[in-house]
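pasting input
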Amino acid sequence: MTGFAVMLGKELREQWRTRRLPIVVIVFTIFGIGSVVLTYYLPDLIKQLGTGGVVVEIPPPTTREAMLQFQDNMSQTAILAAILLAMGSVAGERERGIAALLLTMPLGRPAFLLAKATALATTLTIGIALAAVGAFVYTVYLFDAPDVAGFALLTLFMVVPALLFAAVTFLGSVVTGSLAGAAGIGIASLLAVGIASLLPGVAAWLPSALGAPGLAAAIGEPVSDWQKPFLAALVGLVGVLILAIVAFRRQELS
Amino acid sequence: MAESGPAIFCRGLTKRFGSVLALDNLDLEVPQGSIFGFLGPNGAGKTTTIRLLTSMARPTTGSATVDGLPVGVGAPNLAGRIGYLDQDPRFPGWMRGRELLELTADLHGIRGAQRAARVTEVLAQVGLTEDAHRKVGVYSGGMRQRLGLGLAILPRPPVLLLDEPVSSLDPEGRVDILSTIKALAPASTVLFSSHLLTDVERVCDQVAILDHGRLVTSGPMDELLARYAHPAYELEVEDGEDPSVGRLVDALRAEPWVTEVRQDGSRLRVAVRDPSQAGRALVVVVAAQQLALLRLERQRPTLEDVFLELTARDDRGRAA
């Protein structure tokens, strides 16, 4: 792939120099650590708020609840960030004519797209991974330590869906050539997955089905039923990227 | 570089955007090593042609080759064979000027000490040495145009496609950059698109004129001047005698050896059929109107004359 390594270097520097990577890391880490801390202090917060004379017995939170809170918050944050980051990655450079400039140099169109996708995936993965490390440290400090390998699996099960939604938005960015169009496609895919998850036969193949096995892994319980949604997400990710490349190869550039 | 044949070759190249015919059956040959002026008013189809030649756009019909390779979206990558400068170049604002040149060098496989030397050389050529460390986002339009030219020439490509390369520059910068462009030939073939006739006249040896998407004419500059630019005299009479100047214009237009008279106050430009006869007769006509002649000068035919003559003829042809 002509020019991939050079273009990837440029894209990674761009992630850093435009502050995208530091901002994603900071925001994700706040959400990651905050989820665990909030779980720990939730009973105290409810007591402080008062219950109007009614006595509410809240059992002390456990590692399971901390992991569940982390998983819920982080998954949503990561997917929304993935859509926001991906929507302008191609459309923005096309609108400004930067894509046309670079593509008159020895840089293939597939290399151009894959470098952008790889840099985007790197930012998201680093952000989620560092947030996970923060959440893990606080969980060890405030609760019982989660299973290390299981926690890594939980993190992986959050990374893959985020990358899938990033790829779908990325495809939208290529096909529509506009920020709004890309965002629309990203959000529409999120809604579509939400609706499809209500269908019994389909739900087991959707990224949302990775939640339960991820949580089970983190708290050391047996992990099952992860293969279908995991493989479906990977196949979807690769398929969407191939579609983006095919579409981009045929497009005229302004 | 292709050893024989034109550097750029277009046959029946046509581009339509919906109902708008942006380029109409263009046949063009740009000789290797030439600086080829691609002239036309705004909307003539110059940028469309360049976009087709860079493989950014797909022709509706027709074909083209650049340095012997076919162009078009999905065609083999021309990269490395062309340098391209957009009419309004834009770059990633977070990068510094030097970094962009280094990125270009990296993409062209120019590495190490050779890269550093070439980047420094190009920065000096385009007059950006002092500003190389600044972020491109704060560059002015003229600086972006200089940087864009630097990116285009850095790999020393056999063909350069420059779309309005000096339109944002001040007069001094324009002279500098035109000299730089002139020095690129014959190692590179330069297609120089512009609507500024004086710039084209200064650097180009071959010219094509495009109007309303159609090629009006093309050929060596000297030939076009000889074929289309009528010999002309410029004369100036005493100010403050407008009615008399008006009578002089009428009298000149009545002369069989005059082809056109253009008036700008007390100055007249008189295009003639026979310059020798005109040289003798002009003074007599002026004297007959009892006007004092301040200046009479034989004018060198200019590209502007050719351009106005041909585009006006084209307009008349379309109107008929």
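fyi The mean pLDDT of chain A is 92.
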